[in-house]
């Protein structure tokens, strides 16, 4: 009897293994091959040698966030550089308390002469925009934070993903006001006391605009930078609105919390609030062979 049970157990294990193999083969055969897709896009992107790169990716970072920058270099930034020639630039400020900086080994760190701090982010990003407009070649700029995994596949697949001049594409936020919570890292007593509703703006986790739009926002905006302590509200809200530019709400930039599963993350351009380890984990999720 014991021998019979052992035989039955062995048969069940064998059936389970065969089922897993068949299931894996199904996933492999039915999955959209992202590597092939990237190779096709690479051929299109590099078709004209010497052409101006389509995207420049600007990552708002902090001087001491060395591990996050390295995780980005090893994951999505390397993918876009190798496949398309699209560069990533990390923006950091100055801080005498934090000497950790990786600019000696990497040429992708853009240091601006603005003290690190949440209340100086607008000035920090202003200088970064001015620098890339002067020194970099690109058709569009994508701005993200350094806790974001940037997945451009949904945008590359969409035929209308590139916003026209005079518009900003991202996750639109409406009816927001300055934080009144003193514990909030963005809290400013002066701004909180005004209780003004912000114009619609794109979440700073990730947004996209053309070079011409960026140049206008950077050089022609007359709104005082003291208007708000939020850099995304200033550039994509106040300045965009003052110049008569449009805000395009794109579902791919929606940053609401979601389960980090392959079929979830493949739908979105940004996955937000990640550590260095999380960035690598999301990269592994996107490389899994699984049908969605």
Automatic annotation (TrEMBL):
One GO molecular-function entry: hexosyltransferase activity
InterPro entries xrefs: Glyco_trans_31, Nucleotide-diphossugar_trans
GO annotation, cellular component aspect: Golgi membrane
Location in or out of the cell: Golgi apparatus membrane
One GO-annotated biological process of the protein: protein O-linked glycosylation
Membrane topology, from the record: Single-pass type II membrane protein
Keywords, in A-Z order: Glycosyltransferase, Golgi apparatus, Membrane, Signal-anchor, Transferase, Transmembrane, Transmembrane helix
Enzyme class: transferase
EC number: 2.4.1.-
Spans traversing the lipid bilayer: 6-28
Family from the record: Belongs to the glycosyltransferase 31 family.
Protein name: Hexosyltransferase
Source organism of the structure: Steinernema glaseri
